[in-house]
Amino acid sequence: MVDTLLRVRSHMVKNLGRFFVVGVYAFLYMPIIILIIFSFNKAPFPSRWTGFTWQWYHELARTTHLWEAVMNSMFIAVCATVLSLIFSVFFIFFLAQSRRFERVATFFYVNTVVPEIVFAVGLLGLFSFLGVPLGRVTLVVAHTILGMGYAIPNLFARLSELDNRLTEASYDLGASAIETFRFVTFPLLRSSVIATGLFVFMISFDDFVLAYFCSGSTTQTLPLYLLSLMRAEVSPTVNALSAVLLMFSGSLVMVFYSYNSRAKLF
Amino acid sequence: MVRLMRCVTNRFRGENELPFFFGTPAILWQIIFFIVPLLAILFFSVSVFNSQGSLIGFSFASFKYFFSMPYVWVILRSLWLAFFNVSVCFLVAYPVAYYLVFRAGSFKPLLFFLLVLPFWTNFLLHIFAWFFVLEKEGFLNLFLQSVGLISKPLHLLNSSFAVYLMMVYYYLPFMILPLYAALDRFDGDLIEASYDLGATWWQTIWKILIPSTAGGIVTGFFMVFVPSFGEFVIPELLGGDKIMYVGNVVSYLVLGENTGALGGAFTVLSCLVLGLSAFVCYLGIVRLIKMLK
After folding, report:
1. How far does A172 lie from chain B, in Å, by closest CA?
2. Which of A46, A97, A238 is closest, CB to CB, to B16?
3. Over 90: is that where the pLDDT of A73 sits?
4. DSSP letter at A133?
5. Same domain, B100 and B182
6. pLDDT bucket at A45, cuts 50 / 70 / 90
7. Which residues of A fall within a CB distance of 8 Å from B116?
8. Residue B158 lies in a domain
9. How confident is residue B57, by pLDDT bands cut at 50, 70 and 90?
10. Which domain holds residue B199?
């Protein structure tokens, strides 16, 4: 009897960790799962389950405001990603020339440390002081800063992991600095560049704080549209939109890890 | 100075000319659109404008405005929220990260994927999910009523409870991931060695595990503490505009009419408080970990 009790107790202790982790994951994913399930609910309000329907997804597809917001977000995210990747790769080329320059890279580490709201306030102040009209361009500018804050530290970490002998060999064989970067260093970094680009795209696509301050009254991005929907009413179309967005991010994460299996976010 | 000049001119003439120019777009962009705006906040917080909007002088008057009880409370409330959030996240995240690294086995990739996914999903989506769950006629109330635990729906939204819950929910992955990365680098054999040498599990945790993952703890602290302090979306949407935190006051003042200078001053002030408290906490954590060793 005592023996069985002891065995049960040790079993419990062993599984305590598992219960805890399952609980935490349930906490993290329960709301989202409920959200998605109720996007197929016939009743328009978060009441009881009344039946399965695709109705809200059809309604979502017909909303023109949504597509405007999506196009805006896409435009901003693509521009910010391309700009910050070009700047970052050029900058990495500069860093790759000499170890003396490495300290310059720390200049970009603060971008992600400063609270976004502070940066947004400063940028808004600057733009309104200079009389720059707020809109898509100002958001691209702001998101490029965020993007560089992720891209440069990440690519720099990759660069310092590379084998120096490869570039040395290239120099010894008579290649110039640009040729070495073009044909040796960059191909080695390519998959990290793509993965970083995906991450920067998502950062920009999901950004709320900067968009809230620096987008002006005419430009609506997807997160701002989501906010206006949430403030207006609780409608299952928002659930449907959430489900679609979640699928989108999920597939991006998978692509990200296929390019960058050892990706380090930290 | 002469040497510096020569260095620069050599660079322009010499072979190094090109790489130097390739570095400049990023640096210029960073200075114009990041450093200058941050300095602009400082500038606007002390400048005084006349009614036509032109600069007439400098004063610290807008800072004095905030040395009154309501604003002090706002800052203290945000500090408490950030502290609370960091502590709860750490206590929950550490066991989870430990389990993921050492015990998860074949579930590890899946669990890791589920942990990374929130980073890539829209912030508002998470908030909406909780909206849906916590609402008066939302899922949780309906569930509890149908089970029979409560007879009347609880008012869960628009309360401090909802704000704290959402904060922990949203920032938990930000704490788990750095701890995961730190534990992943940690050599698991050391735990066994510690047990073999007769240490209890309590001693192993405090003397081996925590000190070896200090880097991850510090990263996690900053990743949660700093944004928690300035958070304004969660209190605004789930706190029901009643309870003001630093982020709400900043957005209210900055986006309001003619209160831009006050907003700048308040931003500067709260940044000072944030920087100071984060630094003190950082020193505290480092000291504590050193003491453990």
Report:
1. 16
2. A97
3. yes
4. P
5. yes
6. low
7. 253, 265
8. no
9. confident
10. 63-121+167-292
Contact A87 B29 (CB under 8 A): yes
Chain B CB contacts of A244 under 8 Å are none
All residues of chain A having their beta carbon less than 8 Å from the beta carbon of residue B40 are: 122, 125-126, 129
Q: Classify residue B28: in a domain, yes or no.
A: yes
Q: Does B44 touch chain A (CB under 8 A)?
A: yes
Residue recorded with tokens 């008066």: B136
A-B CB pairs within 8 A amount to 231
Same domain, A76 and A30: no
* pLDDT tens per residue, range A204-251: 998 999 999 888 888 889 999 888 888 877 678 888 888 999 999 889
Q: Give the residue-averaged pLDDT of B207-218.
A: 90
Number of domains in chain B: 2
Among positive and negative, which fits the CA dihedral B45, B50, B56, B58? negative
The predicted model gives B35-53 an average pLDDT of 81
Contacts of A110 in chain B (CB under 8 A): 34
* Residue B99 sits in the same domain as residue B182: yes
Among partner residues B119, B124, B219, which is closest to A226 by beta-carbon distance? Answer: B124
Does residue A98 share a domain with residue A12? no
Give the global pTM.
0.85
b/e string for B154-185 if b means 16 or more Cβ within 10 A?
eebbbbeebbbbbbbbbbbbbbbbbbbbbbee
Domain containing residue A84: 64-259
Per the CB < 8 Å rule, is A208 touching B123? yes
Residue B283 lies in a domain: yes
Which residues fall within 8 angstroms of residue B127, CB to CB, at 6 or more apart? A230, B166, B233, B234, B237, B238
What's the token pair of residue B78?
């945000």
Q: Whole-angstrom Cα distance, residue A123 to residue A114?
A: 13
Predicted confidence (pLDDT) at residue B12 exceeds the cutoff of 70: no
Q: Would you state the pLDDT for residue A6?
A: 64
Contacts of A265 in chain B (CB under 8 A): 116, 119, 177, 181
pLDDT band at A262 (very low <50, low <70, confident <90, very high): low
Quick one: A15 and A98 in the same domain? Answer: no
Q: Note whether B37 and B77 are same-domain residues.
A: no
ipTM: 0.84
Does residue A92 belong to any structural domain of this protein?
Answer: yes
With contact defined as beta carbons under 8 Å apart, do A159 and A95 qualify?
A: yes
Residue B70 pLDDT > 50, yes or no?
A: yes
A114: closest CA of chain B, how far (Å): 8
CA distance B202 to B200: 5
For chain B, the average pLDDT equals 84
CB of A146 closer than 8 Å to CB of A79: no
